[in-house]
Structures are given as structure tokens and as C-alpha cells.
Design brief:
Number of strands: 9
Radius of gyration: 19 Å
Bound molecules: NADP nicotinamide-adenine-dinucleotide phosphate
CATH superfamily: NADP-dependent oxidoreductase domain
Number of domains: 1
CATH topology: TIM Barrel
Largest sheet: 7 strands, parallel
Strand content: 5-15%
CATH class: Alpha Beta
Helix content: 25-40%
Number of helices: 11
CATH architecture: Alpha-Beta Barrel
Strand order of the largest sheet: 3-4-5-6-7-8-9
Order of helices and strands: EEHEHEHEHEHEHEHHEHHH
């Protein structure tokens, strides 16, 4: 059986299954988080201010932690520094705003959301429709994030969407090695070499969009015959097979759902195991298909 938590380079344990919250609407997210924590055994929630629902998640946290049904220390909470807050003077205020909204006095993990700095106004476009970016070195942002660890606002810091060249540059000056690299990972986009490289540098890897965002684009991962067949063999669902596949790759996985039925389903992945053959069969689905790409919203060929 794969472990239910991974040890970070800080020594802290990170539960391998978390609840994603992107596109979880403010009116549904609180119930989803509450249900995941109190009824389905989730102990890890992945948040970000850009998801515009941290206040509602905070209200759910307060209710649960005050009731004593789950203790704050039992839950691993991640949030992220948005692109508009990369300047040295903005990092701490951004983290404090997230803490205020989430009604927490520390985060377990704070990630730089993208290696892209944007103006305060948010997505701004020039006359050619290209995203306007700011010239703030990532070293400045990272150093400010290191300050958050020192001051006890966050237990660990990490990155998201970092490619190998970005990681190489970061580790050249980082005093605190990132604890995590959170990247898009699913059978259509396995990034085997980046996973291995991030781990080699001492980071845990979190798989985002692990179901390839069903219904959001061209990806139809849940309908793939190989996934459906393996699911039927184990008497599990295609989503459970994909989540299990991510866990058995020794990655952390954060499927998003606001549906109680699917939150429960996605959490029931610790009572079966995929064989090596099944892991490899799922691996044949690789096709380099990204479902999250800044080229789409900013004409930035970030991953080319
Ligand atoms: N760092 C980054 O840049 C970044 C980027 C993307 C995502 N993330 C994080 O990763 C999380 C997960 O990624 P994601 O939300 O992009 O995609 P995902 O988890 O692959 O897919 C979410 C979609 O799948 C549906 N779903 C969930 N469970 C299902 C099931 N068992 N069967 C069928 N459909 C199911 C959800 O609908 P319902 O809600 O209706 O169930 C939702 O539409 C995000 O929420 C976010 O926290 C981070």
C-alpha cells in the first residue's frame, strides 16, 4: 500500500490526498470542505486567493475547528501567492490576507502560484492582446517568501508550475529549498522527467488537475477504455483509478469536487492497489495534453 502521507523536506507530513478548490463556487465550497473533513477523512485542502473562495473556506474551517470535530493541527492547508503580489513589499500582506480569509494563524504550505509577475490590477492586456507582465525577479519573491517561514506565518514554502530551468535557477540562490512543486499531472501529461527531477532536488510533487478537468475541454480521461476496464476489475470508478495512479506514482493528488457523492468517491482510494501492469497500461495514455496553459490567457509560451 502507498503511504497516506509523504514526509516533506521540512520534516512535516503532507497527506497524499487533498481537496482541490479551483472553480468551487463561494456558495458551495464551504459545504464541500466541511463534508470532506468531517465525513470523508480528508486532511488536506488546496486553496488560492485567485479562486475567490478563501473567505467561505475560512468560515467552514472556523466552524469545524471550533466544534472540535477535527483539530487545526490535523489538517494540511495550502494556499498560494498570486501573480500580482510578487513584489518584496507585497508578499507578506498577501499571505496575511489569505490567513485572515482562511481564519488561520499559519499555513502548512505557501506556494508561488506561477513564475509570472503581473500588475496589481490583475490580468492586463496590451493592444495586441498580450498579457502585461512585471519585471520582478523570482529571487526577490522567493526571498520574501523565506521571510514568512522565519516569521512563523507558514510552515513550508514551495512553487507551482515550475519547469526544470526555473527550478535550477531557484535552487541556485534559495536558502530554503522549496518543499513542493505543484504541477499538472495526469495520464495525458505525465511529465515523468520533471517529477523525477523535482524529487531529486528534494521536493515533493503535487499533481493538479489529476482528472484532466472532465467537462472543461477536449480531455476525456474518465472515458478512456483502459481506465474504465481497470476500474471495473477493482470494482472502483475511473476517477478512483486515476487518483490511485497518482498516489502510486508517489505524488500528492488534489482532485476538486463540490459534489458530496464525488468527494466521498475520490477519498475512497486507500483500499485497493493497482498492479505494475495496470500502472503501465494507464501510462500508455500519455499524449502531452495540457489543460492549464498561460498561452491560452496571456499568449505566454510558458511551457514551450
Ligand atoms: N497550481 C496551479 O496552477 C493549479 C492549477 C490547476 C489546479 N490546481 C489545483 O488542483 C485542483 C484540482 O485540479 P482541477 O480542479 O483543475 O481539476 P480536476 O480535479 O482534474 O477536475 C475537477 C473537475 O472534475 C469533476 N469531478 C471531480 N470528481 C469527479 C468524479 N469522481 N467523477 C467525475 N467528475 C469528477 C469536478 O466536478 P464537481 O465539482 O461537480 O464534482 C470538476 O469539474 C484545483 O481545484 C486546484 O486546487 C492548481
Amino acid at each position: 500500500m502507498a503511504p497516506e502521507a509523504l514526509k516533506l523536506n521540512t520534516g512535516a507530513m503532507m497527506p497524499v490526498l487533498g481537496l482541490g478548490t479551483w472553480k468551487a463556487t463561494p456558495d458551495t465550497v464551504g459545504k464541500a470542505v466541511g463534508y470532506a473533513l468531517t465525513e470523508c477523512g480528508y486532511r488536506h485542502i488546496d486553496c488560492a486567493p485567485i479562486y475567490e473562495n478563501e473567505k467561505e473556506i475560512g468560515a467552514a474551517f472556523a466552524k469545524i475547528f471550533n466544534s472540535g470535530s477535527v483539530r487545526r493541527e490535523e489538517v494540511f492547508v495550502t494556499s498560494k501567492l498570486w501573480d500580482t503580489e510578487h513584489a518584496r513589499t507585497d508578499v507578506r500582506a498577501a499571505c496575511e490576507a489569505t490567513l485572515r480569509d482562511l481564519k488561520l494563524n499559519y499555513l502548512d504550505l505557501y506556494l508561488m502560484h506561477w513564475a509570472i509577475a503581473e500588475p496589481k490590477a490583475g490580468h492586463t492586456y496590451d493592444e495586441n492582446g498580450n498579457l502585461v507582465t512585471l519585471q520582478i525577479p523570482l529571487s526577490e519573491t522567493w526571498e520574501a517568501m523565506e521571510g514568512l517561514v522565519k516569521e512563523g506565518l507558514v510552515k513550508a514554502i514551495g512553487v507551482a508550475n515550475f519547469t526544470a530551468p526555473l527550478l535550477l535557477d531557484l535552487v541556485a540562490y534559495a536558502k530554503v529549498t522549496p518543499a513542493v512543486n505543484q504541477i499538472e499531472l495526469h495520464p495525458y501529461l505525465q511529465q515523468e522527467r520533471l517529477v523525477e527531477f523535482s524529487k531529486r532536488l528534494g521536493m515533493a510533487v503535487t499533481a493538479y488537475s489529476p482528472l484532466a478537468r472532465p467537462g472543461m475541454g477536449e480531455a476525456r480521461l474518465l472515458e478512456e477504455e483502459v481506465v474504465r476496464h481497470i476500474a471495473s476489475v477493482h470494482n472502483k470508478t475511473p476517477a478512483q483509478v486515476l487518483i490511485r495512479w497518482a498516489i502510486q506514482r508517489q505524488t500528492v493528488v488534489i482532485p476538486k469536487s463540490v459534489s458530496p457523492k464525488r468527494i466521498k468517491e475520490n477519498g475512497a482510494v486507500f483500499d485497493f492497489m493497482l498492479s505494475e501492469r495496470e500502472m503501465n497500461e494507464i501510462g500508455t495514455l500519455e499524449r502531452g495534453l495540457r489543460v492549464v496553459d498561460p498561452y491560452v490567457w496571456g499568449h505566454i509560451p510558458y511551457f514551450d
